[in-house]
Design a protein that fits this description.
The chain is α+β, with helices and mostly antiparallel strands. The protein folds into two domains: 58 residues, Roll (2,3-Dihydroxybiphenyl 1,2-Dioxygenase, domain 1), CATH 3.10.180; 54 residues, Signal recognition particle alu RNA binding heterodimer, srp9/1. 18% of the residues lie in helices and 40% in strands. The strands form two sheets. Strands 5, 6, 7, 8 and 9 form a five-stranded mixed β-sheet that branches. Strands 1-4-3-2 form a four-stranded mixed β-sheet, covered by helices on one side. The longest helix has 11 residues. The protein starts with 6 loop residues before the first strand and ends with a strand.
């Protein structure tokens, strides 16, 4: 049976700039960076996580760049994470909002792809 999510693709315009954003600003680790046709196959991950993210846009899918991603990240300290990422230049749509189920915020990568960030 299915046991986990293996990889999720994030469509990007410039793989080098995207790799720098995800590693320098978000703190992700590089798992794979190798030639793949006209592009590179780049896999990254949140340190300690088994789920991989691919910074890759299949030919013909360029219209997906800069859209809502359906990807959510979790933090155990929303205030600290928000402050750290904001200081690194990560753009948030608005400050974190506390709800009955937890706290959430939405941030963007350099291509305008949006991601949820939540905590309990």
């Amino acid at each position: 049976m299915i046991k986990s999510v293996s990889i999720v693709s994030i469509p990007v315009r410039d793989q080098s700039k995207a790799l720098e954003f995800y590693t320098k600003k978000l703190g992700f680790q590089i798992l794979t960076d190798q030639p793949f046709g006209a592009q590179r196959w780049i896999e990254i991950c949140v340190p300690g996580s088994e789920t991989k993210l691919a910074l890759f846009t299949p030919p013909g899918q360029e219209s997906r760049i800069g859209t809502f991603s359906n990807i959510g990240f979790f933090t155990d300290d929303m205030d600290k994470t928000y402050q750290t990422l904001t200081a690194r230049g990560v753009e948030f749509e608005k400050p974190p909002k506390k709800e009955s189920w937890g706290t959430s915020a939405v941030f963007k990568d350099l291509d305008g792809n949006t991601f949820a960030l939540s905590s309990k």
